[in-house]
Amino acid sequence: MRVLGLISGTSHDGIDAAVVDFATSGGFTACGVDLHGTVLAATSVPYSPELRARLVAALPPAQTTLAEVCELDTLIGQAFAEVAADIAAEVGGVDAVCSHGQTVYHWVDGAQALGTLQIGQPAWIAEKVGAPVVSDIRIRDITVGGHGAPLVSFLDELLLRSRAGVSAALNLGGISNMTVVRPDGLVAYDIGPANALVDAVIVEHGLNPLGYDDDAAIARTGQIDEALLAALLDDAYYALQPPKSTGKEHFHLGYVHEHLAAQGREIPVADVVRTLTELTVRTVARDVEAAGIGFLAVSGGGCRNPLLLDGLRAALPTTEVVLADELGAAADSKEAILLALIGWSTMHGVPAIVPGGTGAREPRILGTITPGVGPLQMPEPITAINSLALTEASAS
Asked: DSSP letters along 324-350, please?
């Protein structure tokens, strides 16, 4: 089955897509199947500047209207549909799509997630591609006590389960999240901000039209402000025990402004960017070291920031820090590959929750399904995935 995964992450910069051709081996058994996925194509398409500006302007802590939410739901759904149609045509068609959409709000009260909202109307995708679309994948996890995040723990556990010792997968998107896999189980959670705060400052000051600190060019010109960093590290979120989740509802531009105002002095913007970059290094390294992790596979946009990656390697001399490519999931398209895997799982009746990964009490099949242009035909159910191997089409 060919499944197209689509996602726009917490950086809100565009749409990642990947088509994975899944095949089972070992036959259908009561214990599950061995699964192999060949990544046929992957791409990343930026939002138009106009759409991204409208989206960012509507995000918390800004106030918005239901009319704007409705319009953005349609516009983002249409943008996703265009990307889906193009990449589906590139590979000669797909059997199903799984769209994460765009997170606009994640409702957390203390240590409990109560709701989450992703927009990008899936019916536009189903109409454009003609295949069924799995969407709204996070909320079912929340209904059984999970945080709806990090869902990537499902993929991470399959890719890391055969490794000895303690290993982990780290995603550096707008928010940093990590899956820690031990011989006796796993834990996964959101660590804190990765690119979210830096991106917000870059956009506010117009420092880069890309909206992020490309190659850490701006941070390199600044110095770490230790007093500001100490105040940022004192955030109560970091002391919460996993499972936990966070987002731009907490870590946003206003959050930076509050901390700068509390300092009562002028801090050069380059120093602010450098300090916020170091905040990610410190918070991630602290958790990696505390967990005794020997192998760390990194993905997400932040893995292309040399100050982040080099900073982690310097702070973690006893940990092997590599890109997620070494696991078969390219660092730039890993989340889209995850969405393809969740789509395959939902269509086959396989729960895509690892309870230790999100805090859910028990596994659940994720998402809702929008039929394509024809009758909805579900494949034969499968109980579980025993193992997963990923390869690139060009390597096969």
From this structure: GGGGTS-TTTHHHHHHHHHHHHHHTT-
